[in-house]
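Appendix B: complex inputs.
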Amino acid sequence: MRVQAADFEVGAEIAGLTAGRSDIGAVVTFTGLMRADNAGKAVAGMTLEHYPGMTESELERVEAEAQARWPLQASLIVHRVGALKPGDNIVLVITAARHRQAAFSAAEFLMDYLKTKAPFWKKEIAADGRAAWVDARASDDAAAGRWQRPSASED
Amino acid sequence: MRVKLLYFAWVREKTGKAEEHVDLPAGIETVAELIAWLKQQGPEYAEAFRRSEVIRAAVDRTHAPPGTSIAGASEIAFFPPVTGG
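Resulting structure:
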C-alpha cells in the first residue's frame, strides 16, 4: 500500500510484486485514470486531498480483509494525491493468486471498498477555472454493499 | 477534555482551518453531541456543519457513526463522504 504524489508504472509494479516467485498463477490489475469529463462537464484538472495516517490504515485494513476472504499470494494498492490532469493515473490495484478467480474478485472488492472507505476527496477544476468538490455517488455505496456478508437473519 | 480536531475538504474550507485543539465542556460524549456543540462555536462552524447529515467523522482514525463515544479520544476528524479511487 502506498499513497504518493508521483506517478506509477503498472508494469514495474507487477514485476516488483512477482519477482522471484513461482507460486503465482494469476495477476489482475485495475488502473483508474482521470477523465476530461464528469457528469457531462469538461474537467481541466483535479486535486486529491487525503487524511494522512487514516488513509494508510484504511488501505491496510481493506487489503487485510481481501487477504482474509480470498487466497491471495500478494496484493498492492497505490493511490495518488495532489494535482492531477486528464489522462493521469489515479489509482492502481494489483492482486496475485494461484488461480484467476480469487485475483479477479479481490481486485473488484479492493476498488469497491477503497472508494467508500479510504479518506480521499477530489476537487475538480472546470474548464472555466471554477473548482468544486466532487459529490460521493450512491452507485459506489451500492457497489461496496454487494460484498457485505449475509447477516445471521438472512442465513 | 482536550482533543485535536481535524477538518478535510469542504469542511476544512468552511471552518477556515485544517486542525485545532479544543477544550470540550463536560457532557459531550458522542460524535453527534460534538457536532451540535461545534455548530454553536461561530458562524463558520454553523455553516460548515449545517448539513450535518452528510458529514462523516473519524475517531482516532476509525470511521465513526454519530452515536460513537468520544471518551478518551485524542483525534477526531470531520469530512464529507469520501470520493477517492
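Helices of chain B lie at 9-15, 31-38, 43-48.
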